[in-house]
Amino acid sequence: MANLLGLEVKKVTETPPEEVERVKNWIDSEDYKEKNFARQALVINPAHACQPLGAQLCAHGFEGTLPFVHGSQGCASYYRSTLNRHFREPAPAVSDSMTEDSAVFGGQNNLHEGLENAVALYKPKMIAVFTSCMPEVIGDDLTAFIKNARQKGHIPKELPVPYANTPSFNGTHIHGYDSMLVSILQNLTEGKQIEGRCTGKLNLIPGCDFNIGDYREYRRILKEFGIPYTILADIGDTFDSPCDGTYNIYAGGTKLEDAADSINGKATIAIGPYATPKTFGWIKDNYSGKHVSMAMPMGIEKTDALIMKIAELFGKEVPASLKNERGRAVDAMTDSQQYMHGKKFAVYGDPDYLTGYISFLLEMGARPHHILCSRGSKKVEKEIQALLDGSMYGAGCKIYMNKDLWHLRSLVVTDPVDAIIGDTHGKFAARDAKIPLFRFGFPIFDRVNKHRYPIIGYQGVVNMVTEICNKFIDIKDETCEDRFFEMMR
Amino acid sequence: MSEKIRKIDGITKESTQAMIDDALSVYPEKARKKRAPHLAPNDPSSGCASVKSNKKTVPGVMSARGCAYAGAKGVVWGPIRDMVHVSHGPVGCGWYSWGTRRNLMSGINGVTQFGMQFTSDFQEKDIVYGGDKKLKTLLHEAHELFPLAKGISVLSECPVGLIGDDINSVTKSVSKELEIPIIPCNCEGFRGVSQSLGHHISNDSIRDYIIETREFAEPSTPYDIALIGDYNIGGDVWSAKALLEEIGLNVKSVWTGDGELEKIAATHTVKLNLIHCYRSMNYMCKVMEEKYGIPWLEFNFFGPTKIRESLRAIAERFDDTIKEKVELAIAKYEPIMQAIIDEYKPRLDGKKVMLLVGGLRPRHTIGAYEDLGMDCVGSGYEFAHTDDYDRTAPEMPEATVVYDDPSEYEFEKFAHALKPDLIGSGIKEKYVFQKMGIPFRQMHSWDYSGPYHGYQGFEIFARDVDMAVNSPTWKLVKAPF
Question: For residue A84, which residues of chain B lie inside 8 Å, CB to CB?
């Protein structure tokens, strides 16, 4: 049976050390970089995950909501463990465990049985269904399946069961987030729009953001303004529940009644134009009040824009506390700009994070030298280019669209930079280039509590400045000659 | 096998059955009927499985199981360090399983070792038009960019099997062109009921494409063995291999932790296969026994008691020189082990542990906990089969609960009832129980620690168990107000 490839039977060999040395040097070369960038089909170390992961994150942002994966069970285990590792928190979700027979007969039986069991065991207030590859390839009709489930009594009549098609062979986790969010909002707000009613609230859509500190920061800013708000979808408590001797399967999330009433809001701000375009498009056509889509508020300028927009939408002055906070963030920047000025960075991540990092770096006089977006449109590229063109520190910086972290490795070893900003997956490239990696993105599997420190708002500026500058100072302390080792830095 | 039947105060067949019935009471009838045979009190004297296993997961109950792809990529193929492993299909599967199993590797990343994420990153058009052409191109690209890779595995994700791609023919033709082994593995996640089928499919592909394609350059000796079913989690292989070498054996190949393709390909010439993870690799041991007459022996390198038993059982397969070396090793390490036990046992004696792991550790680690004075009050597997549960019965105390592929609901219920001092399971369970104030160790990944195998591993295991159970942080969980 063996040797089906018909290969010639040879002795076990060892690669000669000089050959290893040659290849080791070669992979750091310009020649290799060229070949590496010529790849057409192979993707190596991609910086993005698939749609259903984002859909699950979104589902966790609603009160009492059980994420439900329609597809193979392994998918659910992968999404759950990814979220567990990043947040160091539970991430309860079920799957309907489709197998070979579902490939033949479709997944309706699994879905119905799964819904019934999930309701009995986990008593959710809402079940958010999303798909992985298998039902997408075989063409399962979720609309019909869920309608049938209700008719046959597999789910209670009043239980909301929004659903989203989130094929993994299309887009990334941010697109899954968007599809799930619009589906949940469509479901919950159906028939809830009341002519003339205004809740007086701001709907804030943070987008596919995996930093719970950011959610707390948005809430705090709005509290300072004294503006009532509904965050859609709020994972801030879901993934930051107290350790107090009890386990609450639904630890947080936006109240379903608030989400339902969000259609009567005074205004809606969608953060991150690339994270929730579908949701925002639908909201523009359907929600009362004003609608604005804004960049992720990283750095001073982008935070200023958000603050001013909130003030404008609600006819309020910017509170003194926020003005002071801005001043303190700028103080942190001016006090420490000398440690970052002129430093070159390689940055990668989801489009909304990327525009944030770049904006912030340029404000500090640092250079986002290599900018890598693993999945993004021409629009993203144009926006980034405009940011670069707007600052003298953007000169010579280059954008690499739809490239992966093996491309990034070639970039940082052939055209060195001082640091990388990204997520845990960048640690191999950073190590090979002997430079620090700042973990501001998702996922962060190898450091604790990073997801609790906001990177948005004025506080986010202080956090990023502190982490980056202190690291550079650490490096100086660790590597300088003894005679240059001194008390002050 | 343990000699005497152990009992736990307060646990009887009746109390365990009542606990099971209570957990099942909330299920809809159909699901209850399906789940009931998978939960039972242990009967150690029977030596037989008390539960059904390796059946389809009940939909919607929150199982911890993964899929066949996970078993192939994460477990069997992924740890072979000198191959490029392509996750063939959409981007997610490979991304989620990238570096998340802790199968450590020697070598230089991207040069001689490929612990990276290679994927064909299927797009809509690949689903519509098929991915065979793309696969062909990417295999050439991988060979060009990673010339020292000894081979390539192509691991199918769900869509590949559903759209009818023929990876077997693509790999065969490119393998001929490039003159390196390129192995197709049809391990789509929807196949089978758990990771387990992925192990089996991978074993079959090693059988069909790899074994017998190489021969060791050096002459064989009577002490040539292969270490099977050790995946080098946190460095386990490095600890186990050192011990096996110390007792005089030549570890010719390792399946597959820190594994090397060509050595695996030459395994058919060893004298004995020593298998640690029976569940994931018994298939290949049986093949090698039938085809090449290589006997195999299960062993257990967790904790000094099991290590001693295992070393002596291994020695029985060899001549006196090995027997002498085994006794020397035992004499050398036992005092060191005793010192570890003397340090930790006073703090751990009588503590209760519950386990839920993959296919081996729910039985294999029980002895190590017992060495520290702890009792196992419940154990179960994600993807074990009947023969695993047969082997588990004598290891667990009388009437303790056995659970197969439990739902999170069941596991929580049992933990509430049994109030263990420690739970050993996976990342998906960890934070659930820690919120409840129950100390926890990840027993798939060694919770970012390890190795746990061998004498070297026991010291770390004992320290970690003590650290988890006796951390002062647990005393802070309840607020004083």
Answer: 427-428, 430-431
